Amino acid sequence: MTTQQFGKKGWTPERIGSLVGKTYVITGANSGAGFEASRILLSKGAKVVMLNRNPSKSANAIEALKQSLGQHIDVRFIQVDLAVLESVRNVANELLNTTPIIDALICNGAIAQVAKQHLTADGFESQLGVNHFGHFLLCGLLFDRINEAKGRIVMVGSNAYKMGLKRIKFEDLNFDKKYTAWDSYAQSKAGTNDVWLRAATPYKSGGQKR
Question: Does the active-site annotation cover 185?
Answer without folding.
Answer: yes
